[in-house]
Structures are given as structure tokens and as C-alpha cells.
Amino acid sequence: MHHLDIAILNAFKKVEGKELTTSEIVRLIFPDDANTFDVDGADILFVGGEKKVRGKIRHKKSLLHKRLLYHLNKLVKNNILKLSGIEEFGEKRFALSGDSGEIILEDNTKTIVINNNLKPLTPIDGYEDKKIIKKLDPNNWINKLDSIVLDATKFSDLDKLYNAVYDLFNEVSDCIAILNFEKLIQNKDDTFLSTFIKNLSNDTKDYNKRIGFIINCENIYDKARMKNFIRLFSSDSNNSLQIFFDVTISAIKQNNTLFSYIIETFSQKKIKINIKNKELCKSPVFFGKAGVYSFDEKEWKLYKKEFADKTIGVSCSSSTLMVDIQEFFNNYKNAHEFREFMLKANKALLIANVNKRKTAHHCLRSIHKLNKPYSREFFFFERNYIRFWNYNFKLFEKNSFLLDIFRTIKEESESFFFTEETIYKSCGIPIRFKIAFSSAFRKSDLTMTQRSYVKRTVHNIKYFDSVDSINYLKTREKLSKIFNGIDRVRFFRVTVDNPKEVINEFNYILKNLHIPFFTYDFAKIKGNAKLTSFFADENKKNKTKLK
Amino acid sequence: MEIIAKNILEAWKTTLKVIMKNGEDFIDRDKRVCRELLNVILIIESTKDIEEPINVMKRFKDFIYPNIDEIKSIMLNKIDPSGYNYSYGQRLFNYRNAKNQIDNFIYPLLKSNPNSRRGIAIIYDPLVDSLKNKKSVPGLISVYFKVYKSKLDITVNIRSNDFFIGWPANIYQIYALQKYLADKLKIPIGKITVFSDSAHIFHEHFDKINEILG
After folding, report:
1. Which residues are within 8 A (CB) of B26 and not within 5 positions of it... i.e. 6 or more apart?
2. Contact present, A320 and A138 (Cβ < 8 Å)
3. Which residues of B touch A367 (CB under 8 A)?
């Protein structure tokens, strides 16, 4: 590649995806010559009257333009640049070609990567302006993954795991979950566990990431070490680090004392206890700032059987969109418009995936390096998420057709994704394109509408017998069947007098409810709307809107 | 069945018509009703309108058709890209991470001996693809290059060829590869011959196919 070609590309690199006229490129590449273009500054170089100097400047300018235009046209011909417009006096304007992402040029000797920050055009851009839909981490929507799972057993010690996690922060927008963490801390030296937690705690705060430790409670045999981990976690972590306990009723029974300790410690420190019912869901479940992440159960089985030994983990979520339901119905009238909008959201995710594939080789370097030679397999099980915010449970309880709307929209989305996968495969482009529905967390984007549903507080086990709770939980069960991306049910429990009471409540949920994933939150409840006023308003609105 | 067409659009429409008329229906693994014609040989004389079928597909708004960049890149990209179960480019230019079949074999072969009949590249890999439960296996099996009357002809073997959805992209990829090598050899491109073991269309696309056929 000619040195001027490289210089031109470097000029575009500097301006991060913006367009440049030929004059601007000349100024960037030949700054010394460009300084002489002003008549005042040219006196030293060009001798003669002002008219003569102007003529000389024009001549020099035109020589430089000609020289560059040859290379600019060559880059346009090779599809690296595109002609984006012509200025008033016929001057050409150029931009990097391609919609977005990184342009990668390779010849026999070198690879040049140029970041083209133009965001891809998607059919949801208008809805984004109305704050109805949000992209998770919009600046990195097409060059990072949302969440991944790392298998702790693939790392010989905490240092190696920490280094991998740190490197991967660059390539993950939201959350890194660490699977089989109980094995690492029970089997290996845990001397530096406190430093490990403290470092991650600081890093997650600095880089705005989340880390999830997934603990399979059936694998706990060294209770002292586990207790030590809980103690250090409760003292050294912040809320960007979470523990996710994979449990069964018998696992809780076997670890009764440990769970009492967890409940006592976590309730005092106001740390959430996240529980996944292993009887209902075998695959990992965790959450980041966007919401809950999970896998398809059948696919997870396949991963365990065929790929778990090969890769250091697995990608969980590629791209996420968050839909503010309340904001949508503030702007639009009915369910038909909602269906049309959802189809556009699906198309936007497809566009994101296309762009991600273009740049994956360069943007996800650490993932490739860590999974060699099975880096392709790392992506085999990932999904895209559409998350919903501020949908009203009370309305779902009263109007079963709302559940049907969600159900059919999910079916339509799955059908769209299946069709696209088939189209791409037929075109010799064997991609994976899957979708999951789940709830959004408002923390991911504070510009979403204020929470309008009521948080649930458990005072004791009698909570689960009340008619209101039964109706609420039945609706959540139904929703959890529709939300193939797994939904989280959060129970607030402000005071804990006796941890055994909470254990009984866990057991009740595990035994009687079809809720795969729930959280006990010991924080003080904030942000509830007034129940009576809110539902009265909502019922009125929705009678007219959701026809 | 042999079809000879002057250009890409004629080749596409004629073959679609022939499958519609003479194909046999069956239900495939995904429970879709498929109309199939076996052993179709399609010879295309000119590729001037190579992008036309893709443009036709892009007019349908209920799905998104892959863009030309990605269609081309899966054929010519030499690196092993993630995000795909396999890629033609990797198999052609870096087969089993060991052999560049195009640049290091066919190009020097035809450069030194334009009459050679050994210009063959294989995409299918039995060690990776011949697994009973494998879901994603290349449709394009092999590519054969021949310099004929000072032009570069290409003949491909496609085991399973969706003539409505897949063919516009498939033929573009074949053309892109032919063009790549022809440019390297500094000779013009010649004919394209596509041998489809199973040339098929799906019942769910009949309305759209009829729309194209007018």
C-alpha cells in the first residue's frame, strides 16, 4: 500500500468516521504546506506581489489536490472510501465506506484497522428519539458483547482468572459471569481471595461493568472456605458484584448452616441473595445492569456435552434492546402498532449482528486468543435480548389478552429470526440468530420512565397465602413461561429476625412456584408508585389504548 | 436437466419456472414443504447483470436479505471469522489451516499451464462435515476452474440449492471468486456452470416466486 494511501486512512482515523473534503485531507496530510496557503503566511515562501503570491498558492494547492485525488479515487475504486458529496465549487467530499464498525485492510504484509464510528441505520432510530427503545451501551452496540460466561475451572488460580476478566472488560458491555466459582475457591489456594474481590470491586466501578459469581450449591463440600468467601464478599464487594446461588431444596438442606450465615450477613449488609431453582433451569442464570441473562436449556445441554471442554466459556448475549412499554403507549395507540414496532426491533437486532460479525475478528481479540482454536465455538450459544420495562403486572392479572399479545409477539419474533437464519444459511452465510425476551432493569438507562409497578415485600411466609400475592405470582409464572430469557422475581424483605424463616420461604418458592429465578432484596424500598392512584390511571388509559 | 442462459436473470427465472413445473414435493427436516428437481445443470454465458437477483430480493420488505459486502466476504475472506459456523473463504484460502487452494495452487497452476484440468478446490471437509447430527454443512462442495478460449470458466457443484432465497447470493459468490482469480491471472471471466444436486424451492415462497416470474 502506498504511503499516501496510509496517510489518507490515518486522516480518517483521526476524525472518527466524519466526512472530509479534499482540502481538509490536504491540510491533514500536508500541514506544513497547508500553512502557506494563507496569503499572509505565505510571504516568506513566495516572493512577489499579492496577485502573484495568490497564483502560486493556487498552483501549489492544485498540485497537492491532484496528487491526493489519484490516491483518493483509487481508495474509492477499492471500496475503502466512498464519495459522499460534492461541494459548491465542485470539490469532492469523502467518507469511509461501509455502514459502520471497523474497516479492515489486509495485504501480504500488514493489517490496518480503521474505526468508522458511523452508527448503522436501523428502523428503530425514530423510536429511539422518542425514548421508547434503548440500545444497551449504544456507543459499543456493534463492537462488544453484552455478557459472557467464563468457566472458573479453566483457570489454574485466581490471578489467571482475574487477568482474563480484566482483559475481557474491553470486549463486554455489561456482565461477565463466572461459572463453577465454588470449585476454584474450594480446590485452589484462596489466600488472595480478598485481593481478588477488592480488585474486581474497584474495576467494575471504574469500568462500569458487572461480575456474577455462580455458585452451584450441590458442589459445596468445604463449608469453611465457602463461609470465608461469603464473609470477604460481604465486606469487600460493591453491588456491581453479585453471587448467584444455584440451588435445589436438598442443596439448601445440606447447607443449612451456611445459608443461615449468608442470610444473616447479607441482610445486615443489604446485599441481594439471588437464587436459581436448578429443578426448573439447569443453565446458568445471572444479571447485569440490563437485566437477567440465561441460555436455552436444550442448547446448554449441548454445550456441556460437546463444547464445555474446548472453550474457556461461552458468549451469552450479543445485542440488547430495551423497550419502555409505558413510553410506547404514551406515544402510540394500540397493539397492532406495537406488533409493527417489535418487527422493526427484530430487524435492528439483525443489523447489529451483521455489523458485529464484520468487526468481531478485531474487536473481540481477547476472546479469540483465550479460546483458540475454538473461538468460533465460543459464540455458538449466544442470543439477542429484547427487554421490556414498565409493563404492568396488575394489568396482566386482569387482562389475559395482554399475555396473549406478548406470547404472539414472541412467536412472531422467533419466526422472523428463524426465517433470517434460513435465508442467511441458504446464501452460504451460516449464522446463528436467536432472540430471548426478558425484563429490563432501569439501572441500565435512567432515562426510562419511572417505575410504575409495585414492589413486593415479604414479612413472613404468610405473604404467599394472600390472594393478592397468589394472583401476582401466578401472573409472574405465566410471564416466566413466555420470557424465554428468564425473568427475575424480586421480593423485598426489610427485616430478618431469624434466618430460618427466610430459608423456609426459599423452600416454599422452590417447592410450590414455577419461578426459576428470584432475588431477596434487603434494601429499603424506594420508588413505589401509589397503588390506588396508579392503577386507576392505568386502567383508564389501557381500556382505550390496547384494543 | 440442462439449462443454458444468456444472463443471470434469465438463468434464475428459467430455472425457477422449470422447478415449479417439473419438481417433486416432499417435506424436509424442518417440516417445510419443498419442491425439488434433481441434477440441474445451469450454464450462464454472461454475468453483466450479476447483482440483479439480489436487488430483486431486496425489494421484499418482510425479510432482510444479506448485503453484498457480507455475501462477497464469506467467499473471499481468508481469515477464519467468528460468528459463522463455517466460511467458504476460509475453506478455499486456508483449508484446515494448511492449504491456500486458490492463491497457492490454482493460480500458479493456471498461470504456468493454462490448459490444465487440475484446477479444483474443495470446500466440503469430511472430517468436520460428515457428522450425522451436524446442522450446518456447506452447500457448495467443490469449485473447478478452467481456462477456455482465453477466458476463465468456473464450474461448481452445489449439493443443496435453494433457488429462490439462496441462489442470488450463491451465484454472486461464485462470480466473485471467478472474478478474483481472473483478475489475478489477468484474463477475462468466461462462463459459469452450476451443477445442483438438489435444486429446490419452498411452498411458502410460491407467491413471491410467481411475483418475480410475472
Report:
1. B33, B34, B36
2. no
3. 82
Chain B nearest CA to A324, separation (Å): 25
Please state, in angstroms and rounded to a whole number, the distance separating the CA atoms of residues A119 and A116. 8
Q: Is A144 at the interface with chain B, CB within 8 A?
A: no
The verdict on B56 touching A (C-beta cutoff 8 Å) is no
Residue pointed to by grid coordinates 489518507: A8
C-beta separation of A97 from A81 below 8 A:
yes
β-pair partners for A198: none
Length of chain A: 547
Burial group, residue A96, by CB count within 10 angstroms (0-12, 13-18, 19+): buried
Whether B63 and A368 lie within 8 Å, measured CB to CB: no
| Cis previous bond, A373, omega within 30 | yes
Residue spans of alpha helices (H) in B8-137: 8-22, 52-58, 68-76, 88-93, 107-112, 126-129
Which residue of B lies nearest to A145 if distances are taken between CA atoms? B83
As a whole number of angstroms, the distance between CA B142 and CA B126 comes to 13
pLDDT of A525 reads 54
Measured between alpha carbons, how far is A405 from A382 in angstroms, rounded to an integer? 25
Write b or e for each residue in A13-24: b if 16 or more Cβ atoms lie within 10 A of its Cβ, otherwise e: beeeeeebbbbb
Q: Inter-chain contact B66–A427, Cβ cutoff 8 Å?
A: yes
Cβ contact A167:A201 at 8 Å: no
Q: Which phi and psi angles does A523 have, rounded to 5°?
A: -75, 160
Amino acid occupying residue A543: K
pLDDT of B204 over the 50 cut: yes
For residues B33 and B25, the answer to whether their CB atoms sit within 8 Å is: yes
Instruction: Name the residue among B145, B165, B107, B176 with its Cα closest to residue A422.
Output: B165
Which residue type occupies B60? Answer: F
Question: What's the pLDDT tens digit per position in A338-385?
Answer: 889 999 999 999 999 888 887 777 778 888 888 888 888 899 899 999
Q: Three cell numbers at A391?
A: 409493563
Q: What is the pTM of this model?
A: 0.79
Report CA B81 to chain centroid distance, whole Å.
Answer: 20
Q: Do A376 and B139 touch (CB under 8 A)?
A: no
With contact defined as beta carbons under 8 Å apart, do A64 and A33 qualify? yes
**Cβ distance of A357 and B84 shorter than 8 Å:** yes
Chain A neighbors of B136, CB-CB under 8 A? 425, 430
Grid cell 414455577 is found at A514
C-alpha grid cell, residue A66: 491532484
Q: Check pLDDT > 90 for residue B164.
A: yes
- pLDDT tens digits, A428-485: 888 888 999 998 998 777 788 887 667 788 888 898 999 888 988 888 888 878 888 7
CA closest to A347 among chain B residues = B64
Q: Which residues, 6+ apart, have CB-to-CB distance to A42 below 8 Å?
A: A36, A53, A56, A57
CB B121 within 8 A of CB B143: yes
CA distance A183 to A385: 30
